[in-house]
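S.,

Sequence below, as promised.
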Amino acid sequence: MHPCCIYPVRMPSAPAPAPATKRPPAADRVYMHVKQAVLDRRYEGGTLLTEGELAEAVGVSRTPVREALLKLEVEGLIKLYPKKGALVLAVSAQETADVVETRLLVEEFAVRRAVPAPERLVARLQELLAEQKEQAAAGDLAALAVSDRCFHAEIVRNAGNEILARLYDQMRDRQLRMGVAVMHAQPDRVAKNIAEHEEMLAAIKDGDGDRAAHCVRQHLSWVKVLVRGDDR
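The prediction came back faster than expected:
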């Protein structure tokens, strides 16, 4: 064989090492641990958290725990008591009423602006509704609360008002926490919520803004009733 026909053997190159995943700072890990536990009610209102317990749970020293707890206190999720720990604050009836009132103002406006609805919005709402049904069947109330909140947030974002969208996003944590708490307290609301979302989506698809706004009012009115201590 002519030397020119002999090709050097190319050895397969070793795969490049995967970049090392940088761990978040210790204070951020504590912050996310506590916040998620509060939102999904693993730490319920009235629970007293100590720096030592949190440091051990996350695997950090006490210094980042203090930093994280200060941030969570600013967000209104806990109340710090020197030398005692941090008390997880319960959701008050007044806070619930304030959130519902704000949601009504924003969501009624947004759902009217949602019609005629673009195909991408309808498709996304259908996707979120399917997720809610799966999560309800699995009994995953924390995930269901997230999908529920996303369903409404998609409609608000579609209104095209960035200020309203930011205002709505500021209520995210309160909505998630209230959603999980209510579903635990009123299990029958899970199926009712999904049915009301279906009615809302049908009105949006039909291009009926008045009916869609009525669905929003009906959907949120039961929370007001719950705050008063009645049943619906």
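Confidence is low (pLDDT under 50) at residues 1-14.

Coffee later?
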